[in-house]
From TrEMBL:
The organism's taxonomic lineage, starting at the top: Eukaryota, Metazoa, Spiralia, Lophotrochozoa, Mollusca
Gene3D superfamilies per the UniProt record, alphabetical: 2.60.40.790
The keyword Zinc is annotated on this UniProt entry: yes
GO cellular component: a single term: cytoplasm
Binding site for Zn(2+) 1: H105
UniProt similarity note: Belongs to the small heat shock protein (HSP20) family.
Protein name, per record: SHSP domain-containing protein
Domain SHSP span(s) in chain numbering: 57-165
Keywords: Metal-binding, Zinc
GO MF annotations in UniProt: metal ion binding; unfolded protein binding
GO BP terms in the entry: protein refolding; response to heat
UniProt-listed InterPro entries: A-crystallin/Hsp20_dom, Alpha-crystallin/HSP_16, Alpha-crystallin/sHSP_animal, HSP20-like_chaperone
Length: 165
């Protein structure tokens, strides 16, 4: 040991720090992307189309989309931003206890092409009759899916027409 100098070794000098920094950056980016995706599903103000409430409130709304109306009745209330699609490009249907929303937009020119597709599937809460589910599309592209809490469920697929406001 005599004659050898000890070189200080710091944790910051580890090669793994670069790897962990990269993993951390990727995780932060994924968290940001997930938050943005959840914001697109959030309930929105019908006038400004801005998300209503905090992210936690919005997530709670998606988990339990049945609201109590001022008259005391309960109803399904889902809102989705589909402003990138024309009404004829949006398909909403019930299959058993699920509501499926699918939208597809294709645009081709001589020099470019655009393809967008959107699919969301929600399981109806207990007591919501799939045959009573309705939808409407606001002028600013907010799709509202609603329905009263009612009786029996049926498994036959059914298209849901979009009411234009």
């Amino acid at each position: 040991m005599a004659g050898r100098a000890l070189i200080p070794f710091l944790a910051e000098d580890l090669y793994f720090d670069d790897i962990f920094d990269e993993i951390n950056r990727d995780a932060m980016r994924m968290q940001h992307d997930m938050r943005n995706a959840m914001m697109r599903l959030a309930p929105r103000d019908p006038i400004s189309a801005r998300p209503i409430g905090s992210l936690q409130q919005q997530l709670a709304h998606l988990r339990q989309p049945v609201n109590t109306k001022p008259d005391g009745s309960k109803a399904l209330d889902l809102k989705l931003d589909v402003s990138n699609y024309k009404p004829e490009e949006i398909d909403i249907r019930t299959v058993g206890r699920d509501v499926c929303v699918h939208a597809k937009h294709e645009e081709k020119t001589d020099n470019s092409s655009v393809y967008q597709e959107f699919t969301r599937k929600f399981t109806l809460p207990e007591g919501v009759d799939p045959n009573a589910v309705t939808s409407s599309l606001s002028k600013d592209g907010i799709l509202s899916i609603s329905g009263p809490v009612a009786g029996a469920l049926e498994d036959a697929p059914r298209n849901i027409p979009i009411e234009k406001k």
